[in-house]
Design goal:
Length: about 350
């Protein structure tokens, strides 16, 4: 490790040559780590962990003590934003998030924008606690959920198999749905701006359910809301690089890149690396896209797939990552194999 390593991620996002391929992975802090499970027990619930700046800072740093990574990602959740607007949020063991439902104009009108950053003050304190603890080589990533993805959790009241009610509201052009999206755009700009002021150096916007949207709806509910967040941040003088992760767009990733001025995009595991090389890397830095199942199960397929990715995507346009978050059952040894295989290939 050396003090130039932080430059790797920033260089790739600035379209400059990095001295090594930057590497981090989504959900790098979490339940697959014993030290996370222990601290979560001490904290009580997942939300108690998120809102205690000392605990959340500790969890943010945990994976960096084990692995040679180039970035830390703030430990929090995309659903703290609806909670900050007044939705009730809880996480039920083995069931995931539960939110009070938002399904009408009356529900949307109840959501308050004025209290968002005050409510989320503990998150900014987490950032301030983490920052001085990070080695000089590690970049610090903040994040929020994209309006479509966050709206689906608010409308369904939690995780849903098919997000039918959300799609129904969007595709039939419900006015309350458009107002909800607009409120989420404003809340996200305020929240991300405050994250940057507190110390994050890169922003990632997670649109995990972007693939729900058919071609004609993508513009309105995926690209435009994210573009407005990016434009809103730039208007306020926020200059940090932005990574958009619109999961599952396939060839539509090209439209996503053309529609929004982002420095990086995260791509799903099903996107062929040859297609990425031929279509995307001349336009934007690409982050991804190892399948988290390959990382979970290990074996010869792990190294083979890591090598397939790194040998096809040049390191000056690539941020090595997964196509989605690390799975809870993943063995720590497999992560060492993944990291070592990337470093060996690049000779770094
Ligand atoms: O990546 C990181 O390490 C940073 C922290 C982070 C978490 N969630 C922590 C978390 C980030 C960036 C997220 C994003 C997030 N949260 C997304 C977008 C990315 C994706 O996974 O698609 C979404 C959709 C959520 C909403 C969410 N949070 C769900 C559906 C769940 C339940 C599923 C699950 O894995 O338990 C969560 C809980 C959650 N968020 C956990 C963690 C570590 C597990 C909580 C626990 O039980 O300890």
């Amino acid at each position: 490790m050396n003090s130039d390593n932080k430059k790797a991620l920033m260089s790739v996002l600035a379209n400059e040559k990095p001295h090594r391929r930057p590497l981090w992975f989504m959900r790098q802090a979490g339940r697959y780590l014993e030290e996370y499970r222990n601290l979560r027990k001490t904290a009580g619930s997942f939300l108690d962990l998120c809102y205690n700046p000392d605990f959340a800072a500790e969890v943010t740093i945990q994976p960096l003590r084990r692995f040679d990574l180039d970035a830390a990602i703030l430990f929090s959740d995309i659903l703290v934003v609806p909670q900050a607007m007044g939705s009730e949020l809880g996480f039920v063991q083995n069931e995931g998030p539960k939110l009070s439902v938002t399904r009408s104009m009356a529900d949307v009108e109840k959501l308050e924008l004025s209290r968002v950053n005050e409510f989320l003050d503990p998150v900014f304190n987490t950032i301030k606690t983490v920052k001085p603890e990070l080695d000089s080589h590690v970049a610090f990533i903040g994040f929020c959920g994209a309006p479509w993805t966050v709206a689906t959790y608010m409308i369904e009241g939690g995780t849903s198999q098919d997000r039918f009610l959300s799609k129904k509201a969007a595709f039939s052009g419900e006015t309350w749905f458009d107002v909800l999206i607009d409120k989420l755009i404003i809340a996200s700009i305020d929240y991300l701006e405050a994250q940057v002021r507190a110390g994050v150096e890169v922003i990632q916007i997670f649109d995990s359910w972007a693939s729900d949207l058919p071609d004609l709806q993508r513009e309105k509910y995926c690209y435009k809301p994210i573009a407005k967040i990016v434009a809103g941040l730039r208007e306020r003088g926020v200059q940090v690089p932005i990574i958009g992760f619109a999961k599952g767009l396939g060839a539509g990733q090209l439209d996503f890149v053309k529609a929004i001025d982002m420095q990086g995009i995260g791509v799903e595991s099903s996107l062929p690396v040859n297609w990425i090389r031929e279509n995307l890397i001349d336009k934007v830095a690409v982050q991804g896209n190892l399948d988290p199942v390959l990382l979970d199960i290990g074996g010869p397929g792990l190294k083979e797939n890591v090598r397939h990715i790194v040998s096809n995507i040049p390191m000056d346009r690539h941020i090595f990552n997964l196509g989605h978050g690390v799975r809870q059952t993943t063995e720590v040894d497999h992560i060492h194999i993944m990291v070592d295989t990337v470093r060996e290939f690049d000779g770094s």
